[in-house]
Amino acid sequence: MRLSSNLSQSDFSNHRPPLTPTNIIKRNCSTLQFCNDILIYFTKIMVKTCSWGKCNSDTRYPERIHGVRFIPFPKPKTNEAKCLRWIKACGRPHWQFGQSSINRHTFVCSKHFVDPSGPTVEFPDPLPADGSKLKKTRLHWKLRHDGKSEFTNPDGNAATSVVEETVGMTVTESETDCQQLPIATGDSLELLTAAAHIRELQDKLNSTAEALHHQKVLNQHLQLQISSTSQECTTDNLEAALTVDKILQQEERVPGLFLYYTNLKYPTFVTLLEFLTCQQMPAYSKKRKDINRMDPASQLLLTLMRLIHNFGVKDLAARFCISKQSVSEVFNAWIDHMYIMLGAIPIWPHRDEIISNMPAQFKSEFPRTLAIVDCTELKTQKPSSLKLQSQMYSDYKSGTTLKGLIACDPMGNIVFVSELFTGSMSDVVITKKSGFYKLLHQLMVAGYIKEGDSIMADKGFTIGSELKTLGLHLNLPSFVSIGMQMSQSDVDLTQKIAAHRIHVERAICKIRTFKMVSHCIPTSIFGSINKVWTVCALLTLWQNPVLKKK
User: Fold this and answer.
1) Where are the domains of the chain?
2) Structure confidence by residue, pLDDT tens digits, 405-430
3) The whole model's pTM is what?
4) The domain over range 351-542 is classified in CATH as 3.30.420.10
């Protein structure tokens, strides 16, 4: 039988009769109170448990189902495909949980859906109990075209159909057991759905507010931990980083350690640092915190260690407790800065100073020879370009090389360093392209060189005609004629030139102590190798001279 729609409201006392279908009908209560009584009655007469995996959600234990809803399991007769998907998602053995086990008392709680409220259009199925990834459901093209789905009401309102389905099924199933229970229709059912939905939204709002407050407190706690941890890490890094002071402290146990790392004595290192930083500091394209924590002395130390020992980026990052990117940034910035600052120093002295500081034997045999020139080759990695391979191939080294011109005074101090050229070029071509003749002309104009002075070179430097146009002479070993022996005077001259020309070889050996240029040069640093080569050559002037003045 049906309920009449003209029920009047009555007050309920604390000792009201138990909720039974007969008592609910007899009460003269409002429609909203009637809906609430119906929900309470259904909750009391039917126990709901979750069938998903090992979930323990149970209506008999309210502490387990706070904010949890129970969604009816799809029935095999009405929606077999969906029922099979849900069975698979529950992850229970088939002999324990299959289609035959599905009835009107089978539910899945809302804890196992992507949306806490239950199934949605994108995720209509529970999360798989085996932990596999849940994919979004692709709707049929007709449903996508019509904009409808099984979770959408005919009126176009989504999310309320699940509640209506749950309530409708509960009412239908309870009608079988209790024939005396009236069925709510029309406005009563709509109010019942609205009340349940409002109650659900209130619970969700309360739980969200609690979770938000908890998360806010947790974030504040984590921020405090992160800040304290970062400060501790920064302090530990600063203490563990390699510095000039730490190297000097270890000099007692390891004598000569600072000279090993820098190829400079400590007073010379301090002088070089003051010279490089007196006017301006190196410019960094990116501002990094770990670089800002490094003092200029540590940055110069890092640059010298990479030039001299060719330490890798990771090695230096571990020694100085900075990132690999910061190591490259520091090295490139200081190379550019040193190239400009050291390159601005005039290194060719006046002829009077050169002659006054000549070794005695050199002065007696070649009194007007002011410089000794020679070329050196640096081995490189083979480039991928065949054209570049042919240009860089050296018959002398049997590999790809870069070639540079060096000039030194009779004491072995470098007075000229050229750029690097490809290994296939001859010494004569490199001397012409390096600007060496132009420099000699400028020195003659300035009075640093006079006509009649000479340059010493090896046999490969057939540059006598070019020097003659400048008013200079060339001291070159004698050539052997075909089928004839050298005269005694030519032999003596060759031996004298060879004995003194060795000084430029010793100057080149000082440059080769920088392993970054003496080892095989990778193609990745070809863009900056000229600056590295020039800085290494100019840094030898800050070291001990080749020959000591007696």
Assistant:
1) 21-206, 244-343, 351-542
2) 999 999 999 999 999 999 999 999 99
3) 0.58
4) yes
